[in-house]
Design goal:
This protein has 70 residues and is mainly α. The chain has a domain of 41 residues. It is 53% helix and 0% strand. The longest helix has 19 residues. It starts with 5 loop residues before the first helix and ends with a helix. Bound molecules: zinc ion (ZN). Zinc ion binds next to loops.
Length: 70
């Protein structure tokens, strides 16, 4: 008997990839430089000027990680 449904298997694999990606996400240990790490706008605190830059930068880092693994 074979329980492996191709669609379920693909979905499960995708879920695992997401979990691994989340587990491997870089920790927020970026030093304060006075500039947004994504667009280099001057900021007074934190690492990014807004959450969009943080999200975009995290996506970029994640994409770089995926390319390295693949
Ligand atoms: Zn920014």
């Amino acid at each position: 008997m074979n329980f492996a449904d191709p669609i379920d298997e693909a979905a499960e694999r995708e879920q695992q990839m997401i979990e691994v990606a989340l587990a491997n996400r870089p920790k927020p240990t970026i030093e304060f430089t006075g500039k947004c790490h994504f667009c280099e706008e001057t900021i007074s605190k934190g690492s990014y000027c807004d959450t969009f830059c943080r999200d975009d930068h995290e996506k970029e880092l994640w994409a770089q990680r995926q390319r390295r693994v693949a």
